[in-house]
Amino acid sequence: MQSVVRLYPPAYDIRVEEIPVPTIEHPDDAIVKVKLAGLCGSDLHPYRGTVEGLTEPSVCGHEFIGEVVALGANFHPGATGRPNLYATLKVGDKVVSPFTVSCGECHHCRVGFTSRCVESRLFGTPHTPGGQAQYIRVPHAGGTLYNLQGISTASVGPDEETKETIGKLADSSLLLLCDILPTGVFAAFQALNHPKTLPMLTSRPYPQSSGGALLESVAVPLKREDKVLTIAIVGLGPVGVCACIALLDMLYARDIEFRIVAIDPTEIRRKKVEAIYARISQAYGKQQNGHLEVSDITASKEVVTKWTQGVGCNSVLEIVGNTSALSLAYELVRPFGCITSVGVHAARPVPYTGQQLYDKNVSLDFGRCPVRAMFPMALDLLLRRQDVFGEVGGETSLVEKIVGFDVAAKTYDDFDKGRCGKVLFDPWK
């Protein structure tokens, strides 16, 4: 038997229970002994009862890191024509998992859209028990898991020092690769690579900014204010913090002028982002080219109006996953701007009409992060920002604390009410 954290519908009912240890059910399966499991903002949707059709109890959690203790028959050195892990993964290997199952073999996986794999399943649901457990069964494990032994010994960096560093990273740091860090990187990457953002990044008008032709006879030179990139981030939970860090990292690397307003109604979250920004901007030493300001909801509208003379943001990153956040994003975005939403949305409709979107030329970019595809970028940022991602419980640390299952119910309640930040569970504590 094993201890697990289970959610009982309809809402707010967290119990720690004993259930059987999972076993191999399919030749592509792996059984993982969980070392740490994360509590994510997305876990709050079923916890609050906003996920339609959830009627059965489920083992919670979709972020976990651990050790392989059993493998299905399809894992062997002679496996060919399939994801490499089927030939290389061994019992005893240390692994981290994306928050969804992916086969690694379908069209979506091959082109990098792994979150929409034809075999996709979300960990932490009745049909795919989650990682807030002592053991977990991973379907399609050869296409889903990352072998951390393989990463730490592979040529992932230019020198031996980089490879050695990966091998020494704390489990609490590596667990961030399951979801929140890749999702934050994904949100920033999507926003900065959108055609409507490129005029500010290239100092060229649209469509020349995207490689299109422009009649020089009608071209008007861009003014300085045209080139300043203005971005809002709505929601400063763990994913929002990761999005802030990723966005700052990408913008400082490009050495362009930018302004970011980071928005959340909770003061403790705003203070965390302020502290992180102070550390990051000091490290880069390029504060003159960019500025981040934290704000509550009401003040954010005034900030954007002042910065842009009422024009609005080039891009808004919506990290919350509800209609009020989407409404704020629409208010803040400028005509011909884009809204990138990585928040998990329920069945409620988008709070705008087609006419509103058409009249403002707003692009909506929605959906789940393809974690496997974003893993290299997320790992690179994880390595370079260990001052934020490496410690537990510090002023600028993303992970606030590590607790046992005995306080699971209270931890869910505290996280739901904004009394704590990112928390990890040690199933053996």
TrEMBL record:
Its cofactor is Zn(2+). This is Chaperonin 10-like protein. Transmembrane segments: none annotated. SUPFAM superfamilies: GroES-like, NAD(P)-binding Rossmann-fold domains. Keywords: Metal-binding, Zinc. Signal peptide: none annotated. One of its GO terms (molecular function) is metal ion binding. InterPro entries: ADH-like_C, ADH-like_N, GroES-like_sf, NAD(P)-bd_dom_sf. It comes from Boletus reticuloceps. Gene3D superfamilies: Medium-chain alcohol dehydrogenases, catalytic domain (3.90.180.10), NAD(P)-binding Rossmann-like Domain (3.40.50.720).
